[in-house]
Amino acid sequence: MAAWACGTALLGACASASEVAAPTTTPVGARATAPSDAEEPPRDVSPEAYRAVLEAELKMQGGDLAAGVALLREAALQDPRSAYLRVRLAEACLEGGDLEQAREAADEALRLAPRSVAALLVLAQTARLAGDGAAAERSLARLLALDPAHRDGSLLLAELRIERGDVAAAEQIIEALMQREPGAVDGYIALARVFAERGDVERAFRHADRALARESDDPDALELKLTVLLARGEATTAPAVARALAAAVGDSGEVRRNLLAALALSGDLPGADELARAWLDDDGSEQLRLMVSSSWLAMGELERALAVLAPSGTSAASPHLVAEHGHTLLLLRRFGAAADATCPSVAAPTTPELAAYLLDTCVRALLRAGRAGEAAKMLAPRLELASSSTLDTLAAAARAGALPVADVAAAADAGVARAPDDVAMAIAAARAHELLDAPARARAILDGALRARPHDAELHFALARHLERAGQGSQAVEIVERLHDRGPPTIDTLNFLAFTLADQRVRTADARRLAWRALVRDPLNGYVVDTLGWAEYADAALEQARVTLARADRLSPGEGEILYHRAVVELELGAIEQARGLAARARELLEPGDPVLQKLDALVVRIGSRL
Question: Which member of 170, 227, 260, 422 lies 3.0 to 4.6 Å from 158 by CB, making a disulfide possible if both were Cys?
Fold first, then answer.
């Protein structure tokens, strides 16, 4: 579980290594500097409290944060003299987004151990997340007075200075930190990440290059440069950086994906083809075929992906390979072939997730191929015990007339009744009712689940999505922004906020900023690129929007909504024939019932009035 305490880009210790906000600093609670009073080893903790702490850590590692916090509270009550326990409780509360309890526990730790830098760090993080930058800086001033070389404190203070616009002061803080450690590079990289997320690409590159000047093969600096290049669509220099990164970290699937993407997006498709063929000639394993095909798909090269996935004839393909082959055929709109490829394997023994993926691909292919009867026959036995992973498929079939709407609605309700504490089931059942034109029932399910789990971030995000689809974008934005106040945003929440704001044509500068933050975490995500382009359009940056949306179409070809966005921008720029052609393609690709169709109809009228 991502720790709220790691929610800053400089101090963040929760993002994955492929994300721009990935960590280079010591996580909260670890000893980045000399131990303080609050970081005494557990030998000073009573045996009863120590057992509770160990159990709490196991609970939290297993994802049960609430139980872990409860056990830490119990441990603190059993040992009222331990500052260590109160710091750990403060960190856990911060991880769960309970800022008030985190602050109280940290204050109590400081009462017991006034020189506890760990407690001061939690106080600073809590104040920052609560929007009180001045209080955060006061706590950090106390921390750095105790330990001037404290790495995490320096990094967080630098980020706070950036947030209030004092970039020079932030750079001075990091420079002082780096000068104390002539061989270190992590401060420069952390600062580069912050600037990358803020869209200040030149400063991001400058600090990444300062890290590389100290350590020319530092993988974090090289990965950041490659990520930002791809996010900006500046792929011409990406191959050189990708090769340097490969030399620094050695061979891996991620390295190979980076190389292939850099070559293909820089325009060197023959070079990318040659590289992929060489890998497959050397290792024709299914694992490598899946890796290469997924790389081609990420770049929008559907035909190349299909060629890699096509059955070899020498051995039976696994369900995973079959599923990806059928999904690619579906993307290419070869519906009959997609059905024929996947449907025979639906009953194959595999994981529940892969079985649901196969079933969904098979059913959607059958429906689009006009073979609704076959879809109904396949789905009917699954109605009685529908799972959260199959409800969306069942609802799609009901919308297409292949199943009775009442039967699917009853299956969704039965699923919720059967597993009242299952968040995934509640979300899936609500979405099924929404697809079946019963939004009131969908809202009731979500409200009921939230009454039982009022702090569940996944449920709140599902409610926000529901509200946005119901035309209540302002309320949806408010919910997701509250989630961001409690902890670090995800790619999905950033992208959702950016798109919703852009679609409403409000706070358009914020929409662009949020979309960029999502994009630097996943620079080849065509849907996030589309959001950035739509936000640029909303912010009246039409030429930029044209370029960005064309890139989105390149990465995610055949997406009707992206084509609709392109048509809107082309019409605004006066390219009427181009807009008409894009609108016609969008109409071919959008499925019946897609809400974008209504917007497309209005656009076609506008285009006709301009001819």
Answer: 170
Q: What share of the chain is helix, strand, coil (3-state, %, to 5)?
A: 75, 0, 25
| 127: nearest Cα among 167, 156, 92, 87 | 156
- What gap in Å lies between CA 306 and CA 423, rounded to an integer? 35
Residue 215, classified by CB atoms within 10 Å of its CB into exposed (0-12), middle (13-18) or buried (19+), is middle
DSSP 113: -
The DSSP line for 534-603 is: HHHHHTT-HHHHHHHHHHHHHHSTT-HHHHHHHHHHHHHTT-HHHHHHHHHHHHHHSPTT-THHHHHHHH
pLDDT per position as a tens digit, 89-142: 999 998 887 888 999 999 999 999 999 999 999 999 999 888 889 999 999 999
Cα angle value 155/238/193 (rounded, 5°): 10
DSSP 228: H
Euclidean distance between CA atoms 394 and 404, whole angstroms: 10
Q: Which two tokens stand for residue 18?
A: 């492929």
Closest by CA position to 584, among listed 569, 601, 609: 601
Number of alpha helices (DSSP H) and beta strands (DSSP E) in the chain: 33, 0
Q: With the CA atoms of 151, 155, 157 and 158 taken in that order, what torsion angle do they form, in degrees rounded to the nearest 10?
A: 140
In the chain, what is the straight-line distance between the N-terminal and C-terminal CA atoms, in Å? Answer: 55
Q: Confirm if 441 and 431 have CB atoms less than 8 A apart.
A: no
84 vs 319: CA distance, rounded Å: 50
Instruction: List, as one string, the DSSP characters of 1-56.
Output: ---GGG-STTT---S-TTSTT---SPPTTS-SSS--GGG--GGGS-HHHHHHHHHH
Report the alpha-carbon distance of residue 570 to residue 548 in Å, rounded: 12
- The reported pTM is 0.82
pLDDT tens per residue across span 283-314: 988 999 999 999 999 999 999 999 999 887 66
